Amino acid sequence: MSKIEFTKQEQALIVNKIQRYFKQELEQDIGGFDAQFLLDFFAEEIGPYFYNRGLYDAQAVLDQRMENISEAIFELEQVTEFKR
After folding, report:
1. Among residues 75, 11, 77, 81, which one has the least CA distance to residue 43?
2. Domain span including residue 18
3. How many domains does the chain have?
4. Is the pTM higher than 0.85?
5. What is the pLDDT of residues 12-27, one digit of tens each?
C-alpha cells in the first residue's frame, strides 16, 4: 500500500476540523502545527485500518454485483439438450 497523502487543500481542511474538535469537545486550543502532527500520526498509524475497511467494503459490493450478473446471465440461458 502506498502512503496515504492529502492535497494541501485537504490537509488544511482536516487540520481545521481537528482544531475545531479540540476546541468544541475538549475545550483546548491546538495550534496548526500540532494539528498537522496529529493528522500525520493518524494517516500513518490509523489510516491503514480505515483504508483496508474501505477495500473490504468495496470487495463485498463487487462480489454482490458479480453474483447478480452471474444470475442474470444464467436467466438468459436457453434450454438445450446439453447439460453442464
Report:
1. 11
2. 8-76
3. 1
4. no
5. 999 999 999 999 999 9
